[in-house]
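Consider a protein example.
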Amino acid sequence: MTRATLLLAVSFFPATALAHSAEAGESSPWRNEIAMLAPLAISGVWYAIGFLRLQPRVSAPHTPLWRNSALFALGWLTLVATLLSPLHELGEISFTAHMSEHELLMLVAAPLMALSRPLSVFLWACPDSLRRGLIRGCNSRYMSRVWRLISDPPIATLLQICALWLWHMPAAFEKVLHNEFWHALQHLSFLGSALLFWWSITRSTHRRHRRAIAAVCLFTTSLATGALGALMAISSSPWYSGYAEMGLHGLLPGGLPAVEDQQLAGLIMWIPGGLVHFVAALIFAYTALKQRQSPRHQRVLEGHSMGRPPVTGNTAPTMYVASSDARKT
């Protein structure tokens, strides 16, 4: 488990950081600098090499490898489109476009990449000596403890909420608007916290009743992001002087006033952003309830078949329920 952090950081984070390394306001809407394209290309080629080396060892074509590779490809393409398309350039002068970029990173690219489970594929792309070194280092006692702590769903949820709220504070966001280093750091923290969050609620297995915990974490995130978006949407004055100045000079797209640009950005975070987490919370809550009820239902059927009265209420032994949860987790 600890190896996922290292590999994902090496693969995706440089691409996000270097996507902001060039100066804003360049002539071409599609940013073709080699410094930005290279990290994205390297991560894609690295995964492709691992896939080609691992695929012959998989007998059936319809395996998790193919499904996970499709998920990774969709997430990688979303990341590329977000950072290389005109949307990124538009985000320099529009808070709405900037918010849309963040939502694509955190609600589309990050969950797709987390669900793709790329660890084994990346490892197969490494030379044998490097692969063994990564496994030994990341499975060390210290790294295991750190990873176990930060990948705990409540901790990962708190880290993502903190990243969202802190970076949208006016003092921090003003630095983002005027300095490419802070801009890159903001996107790194958004993508990193989102990857950790989605991985923790979909793949972390060291917690009992993880589906119920995931539902609570998703619902909490929905409330936190919705609250931040709502504050932006109902505000009667712009929070960020950088966008406010562009609005005064008529530089925002369509001549939109800065406060309306901010309100639209807040609505994007509030409704679509909060809705994604809320729907995911409902799905996890449904699966958690279904998982908890299935052992009781099985015992009812066994009681009928053996001529005993059905088991009702909470009479099912706790040990039986716990062992069933463990088998299905």
Remarks:
- The chain is about 75% helix and 0% strand.
- The CA atoms of residues 208 and 326 lie 8 Å apart.
